[in-house]
UniProtKB/TrEMBL annotation, chain B:
Active-site residues, record numbering mapped to chain: 441 (proton acceptor)
Location of the FAD/NAD(P)-binding domain: 7-324
EC category: oxidoreductase
UniProt-listed InterPro entries: Class-I_Pyr_Nuc-Dis_Oxidored, FAD/NAD-bd_sf, FAD/NAD-binding_dom, FAD/NAD-linked_Rdtase_dimer_sf, Lipoamide_DH, Pyr_nuc-diS_OxRdtase, Pyr_nucl-diS_OxRdtase_dimer, Pyr_OxRdtase_I_AS
Family matches, as Gene3D superfamilies: 3.30.390.30, FAD/NAD(P)-binding domain
EC number: 1.8.1.4
Biological process per Gene Ontology, one example term: 2-oxoglutarate metabolic process
Misc remark: The active site is a redox-active disulfide bond.
Protein's recorded name: Dihydrolipoyl dehydrogenase
Cysteine-cysteine disulfides: 43-48
Organism lineage: Bacteria, Pseudomonadati, Pseudomonadota, Alphaproteobacteria, Hyphomicrobiales
């Protein structure tokens, strides 16, 4: 008896290979023509592959999970010659009969394409079919077109219902009762898929500007990010004491002015961080004054207003000015010069903060310091775990100009100031 | 090459294609419809509509021509038919309807491209229009290319051998018309031209006319053909045209006959249009000559859909339209399926024949124990007042629960009864529902009620 190879057919849309997700047959099984052999999955759909022949399965093309190229062997079938010829009798079989090449046959195969959720829905329905009245299960249910449509929408197979109407006709009430009585986890109506529609949103204005600048920054700058953990227990205590002491008299201090102040102090030892790189002309402009960009989320997108001459401000001055420029940016009243001329930038996501961020440098600057969330964690100190308030600084540097070692030293310097906050007050 | 993108591109602007397009447009999908000839396809331009216009004109002419006196004393002398005006009138109806389709498409926001489509792949077609070539890429491709008249190998189209399309656009009534094929197209047109004055001969290979319909239904039509002096040769095959093109050699019962005619209509069926537009590139699973589809009108390739005649029998406009609406809704994310209980079929012969749902034979073959009820128009008041009491209505129901499985009818004007009959089958009516629905008197619809009563043995007027 002849042996035919069933190839994995082209399952459409230029798919080159498909993964076997389920075998419906095993070696030695007798299969009928059109019986499903396997389910294969492409990145889009699950497709059931029916057998083009009746016969006995000799071997399978792979285990479940294997990826097969289109055209490779799915199974080999020993043809049941008699039954096959009967099955093919009505068709105009080629003169070669069973000797037709598998290559010629594979693309002719009836391929039933199902969306994945359809396959799942069918499984769901299959589960609930058990225990139904088998007498009615095979016949087409009697129901008006409106009821059939409603059932389809609700994911109900009307064969599951016993109609209360004359001749077993399914009424609106029967369907409503069935839907109400349906257990939530069984045969759950699928969410009606949304209309497969794409809305085009033109990128304009500030968003376009941000897009250009971000792309330009990541395209040109060789970013590297560096994350360090800071023990801010003392700093946070100090911050709360100061806020309590000067309540109503001075602006409330957040962490940000402390970070800015620590950074300004660290920059005295690391002046190479405070500047801009004119990469067209390959010149670094190092600045003596520290103009700190404060990354600020506004309704229309990210803006970076500038805290000018941070080196000349104390904590409260910084706090007040940061609040002022951020509010101005958010309200849209920031002047053009308020948004230009920063030499280094600080970014904070406020309450969100995250554990680690990889900030994008505000080109043409050289560094950006990111503030992460403050959290209480157990730290090992002097032979025991103690609860400490910690916070990460996630910073990015332009590796074209700044090396990792310098960056690490710079951050360590900031860390030392933040962990000994008295130094910030005395301006050491 | 001009490029454009769409959600849905539809090849073919017939009933299947244009309904898909209108509904898709209504549902907010960017839709492109490509039609190489005229919007409305076979149905509006060269099929259903022009043939019905011709049938109406032929009937009106025939009713008063020939100096026949009606039973109620109408006697019209000197009847003349200006066939050129008949044709112009027919064309004006076609024109109005195709313009209507164009208007609906425009209202639905559909881009209509006049040109010939070529499928490149499952998402791309190239359209050769009059002045430019454009490439259209779409997420969904809908095939709605329809069907064309089947040719007879022995008697190919050309010269005096014409298709139904050609016959409907003749400028003069042929003196003698030979029709190969006694299916509904051959009979509708054969009867119409007989009424217009042609001497008509019909050649059918089977042993009776309308071989796909049961003999009870076709018998009144056969009688009418005899009255109209239409010669019907059954068990006959068209062999070849004589070299002068004026006669057709027909083999019947082992003998060869010569049929002289001015025109030879070949109406032996229709075949799906599945070639000439790159369909083979998709390598779709076929069902014989037709494109195989699921009940969602999916082909074997994702997001390639097919509706209408190229998907199989019955090749009827209303099936295509219903499929088109289903496809548009599925593409728009709704859940829909094409799963009617009944697709009505009508022969606009004289008398008309309709069938909805299962015939008695089909019902029995499906394993049902059936009850039949029939009512003849001979006992229907309205039919008598119309001087045409030929025919009957027959209801097929299940014996156990009286569910109406189907209905057939033959008679004058009964094409309009299909709406009630289809509604009954589609709604899952039982005989008692038909009995309990009061029909207006006097109408032919009363026959439905009476036939249902008859099925239960309670007929009032029979």
């Amino acid at each position: 008896m002849p042996v035919e190879m069933v190839k994995l057919p082209d399952v459409g849309e230029g798919v080159a290979e498909a993964e076997i997700v389920e075998w419906h047959v095993a070696v030695g099984d007798t299969v009928e023509e059109e019986q499903v052999l396997a389910a294969v999955m492409t990145d889009k759909v699950t497709v059931e592959i029916p057998s083009p022949f009746a016969g006995v399965i000799l071997d399978l093309g792979g285990e479940v999970g294997a990826r097969l190229a289109v055209g490779s062997a799915l199974v080999r079938i020993k043809i049941d010659a008699e039954r096959d010829s009967v099955a093919k009798g009505s068709e105009a079989a080629g003169p070669n009969g069973h000797a037709r090449s598998a290559a010629a046959i594979a693309p002719q195969m009836a391929v039933t394409v199902n969306r994945r959720d359809d396959v799942q829905a069918r499984k769901d329905r299959g589960n609930t079919d058990v225990g139904l009245k088998t007498a009615t299960a095979r016949e087409r249910p009697i129901a008006s077109p409106a009821i059939r449509a409603r059932a389809r929408e609700a994911g109900v197979d009307l064969r599951q219902l016993a109609g209360s109407g004359t001749a077993g006709r399914i009424t609106q009430q029967d369907l409503a009762d069935f839907i109400d009585a349906r257990p939530v986890n069984v045969s759950r109506p699928r969410q009606t898929p949304r209309a497969d529609r794409v809305t085009q949103i033109k990128v304009t204005g500030l968003r376009r500007k941000i897009a250009e600048r971000m792309a330009e920054s990541t395209r040109r700058i060789a970013h590297f990010s560096y994350v360090e953990e800071i023990d801010v227990t003392a700093l946070d205590e100090l911050r709360q004491q100061l806020n309590a002491k000067f309540i109503d008299r001075r602006p409330k201090l957040t962490v940000l002015p402390f970070v800015v102040t620590a950074m300004v102090l660290a920059l005295r030892d690391f002046p190479q961080m405070n500047g801009t790189y004119d990469d067209e002309n390959e010149v670094v402009h190092r600045h003596s004054a520290v103009h700190v960009g404060i990354a600020t989320q506004t309704a229309s997108g990210l803006m970076v207003p500038v805290l000018r001459h941070a080196e000349a401000r104390d904590l409260w001055d910084c706090a007040e000015e940061i609040k002022g420029i951020a509010d101005a940016a958010r309200s849209g009243s920031a002047a053009r010069e308020d948004l230009n001329g920063s030499t280094i930038t600080v970014t904070s996501l406020g309450d969100l903060g995250g554990i680690v961020t990889t900030p994008v440098i505000n080109r043409p600057e050289l560094a950006i310091i990111g503030v992460n969330r403050m959290t209480i964690r157990p730290l090992w100190q002097q032979g025991q775990f103690v609860p400490r308030t910690t916070m990460n600084l996630s910073s990015s540097f332009d590796h074209r100009i700044i090396d990792g070692y310098e960056a690490a030293q710079f951050i360590r310097c900031i860390k030392e100031f933040l962990e000994a906050p008295a130094l910030l007050l005395v301006g050491a | 090459m001009k490029e454009s993108a769409a959600d849905v591109v539809i090849i073919g602007g017939g009933p299947g294609g244009y309904v898909t397009a209108i509904r898709a447009g209504q549902l907010g999908l960017r839709t492109v419809l490509v039609e190489r000839a005229a919007l409305g396809g076979t149905c509006l331009n060269i099929g259903c509509i022009p043939s019905k216009a011709l049938i109406h004109a032929a009937e009106a002419f025939h009713g008063v021509s020939g100096g026949r006196e009606t039973p109620f004393g109408l006697n019209v002398q000197q009847v003349a038919l200006d066939f050129a005006r008949t044709v112009a009138w027919k064309d004006s109806i076609v024109d109005r309807l195709t313009k209507g389709v164009a208007g609906l498409l425009k209202k639905g926001g559909v881009s209509v491209v006049a040109g010939t489509a070529e499928i490149i792949d499952g998402k791309t077609i190239v359209v050769a229009a009059a002045d430019e070539t454009m490439r259209v890429r779409a997420r969904h491709l809908v095939l709605a290319t329809g069907s064309r008249p089947l040719a007879l190998e022995a008697v190919p189209f050309g010269g005096n051998v014409i298709s139904s399309t050609d016959l409907l656009s003749l400028k003069d009534i042929p003196g003698r018309l030979a029709v190969a094929g006694a299916g509904y197209i051959g009979l509708e047109l054969g009867i119409a031209f007989a009424k217009l004055g042609s001497r008509v001969t019909i050649i059918e290979a089977a042993d009776r006319i309308l071989p796909l319909w049961d003999a009870d239904l076709t018998r009144p039509v056969a009688r009418r053909l005899a009255q109209l002096k239409v010669e019907v040769l059954t068990g006959a095959r068209a062999k070849k045209l004589t070299s002068d093109g004026g006669s057709l050699l027909v083999e019947q019962h082992g003998e060869t006959r010569k049929i002289d005619a001015d025109k030879f209509l070949v109406a032996v069926g229709r075949e799906p249009c599945t070639s000439g537009f790159g369909l083979e590139r998709l390598d779709l699973t076929m069902d014989g000559k037709f494109v195989k589809i699921s009940d969602r009108c999916e082909t074997s390739m994702s997001n390639v859909w097919a509706v209408g005649d190229l998907t199989g029998e019955p090749m009827l406009a209303h099936r295509a339209m219903a499929q088109g609406a289903v496809v548009a809704e599925i593409i728009a994310g709704k859940r829909a399926a094409f799963s009617p209980m009944a697709i009505p079929a009508v022969c606009f012969t004289d008398p008309e024949i309709v069938s909805v749902g299962l015939t008695p034979e089909q019902a029995k073959a499906a394993g049902h124990d059936v009850k039949l009820g029939a009512f003849r128009f001979a006992a229907n008041g309205r039919a008598l007042t119309q001087i045409d009491d030929t025919g009957f209505v027959r209801i097929v129901a299940r014996a156990d629960n009286h569910l109406v499985l189907g209905a057939q009818a033959v008679g004058n004007g009964i094409s309009e009864l299909t709406s009630s009959l289809a509604l009954a089958v589609e709604m899952g009516a039982v005989l008692e529902d038909l009995i309990g629905t009061i029909q207006a008197h006097p109408t032919r619809g009363e026959a439905i009620q009476e036939a249902a009563l008859g099925a239960l043995g309670y007929a009032l007027h029979a």
